[in-house]
Design goal:
It is a single chain. By secondary structure, this protein is an alpha+beta fold. Helix content is 23%, strand content 21%. The protein is built from four helices and nine strands; from the N terminus they run βββαβββαβββαα. Strand 7 and strand 8 form a beta hairpin. The longest helix is centred in the middle third of the chain and has 15 residues. It starts with 22 loop residues before the first strand and ends with a helix.
Amino acid sequence: MVVGYEDHNLWIVDDRLAFFSYFNSDKKMKAQIANPANPLDRPDISVFDVSLGFQNTDLSQPITIIEFKRPKRDDYTLEKNPITQVRRYVEDMRKSGEAIKYDGTPLRQIADTTPFVCHIIADVTATLRTVMKALGPFHQKVGSGTWYRWDDAFNIFIEISSFKDVLDSAKTRNKAFFEKIGLM
């Protein structure tokens, strides 16, 4: 879906998302990429461009995936967890080599070297901590409950934040702006 920057609030997750204009929300892989290996997989949100009026075909521009998990979920395993899930999405997108628009026309190329930024919005429960330790190392951002990792094996930056941490971070980053316009 093509949307204007004033029509979404994904900047709450990452300020850079305010500059994107093409999103897929809860769409099957077969509607997002050419020839997917897992056509029925369904990332919560995937973002393929950085345009706002500019066509950018640079393969070094990252693709963003946002995956949401139910609050307080505490049943993750090494086989079923959001880290493995976003890795699978990335592998499928890279193998495909091409993101497509809603009508099937090409949107952008996806190379083996195309970087990905994966935001996992989930409470860091005991079972998720166990998975993070096994698939890590993950590092905790100072003063927050957010964890991050550059995954060399997959060329992915993964950030795991609770819903509360995402909102607290957005409020902190934008405090002066909110005060200026009278929202705080």
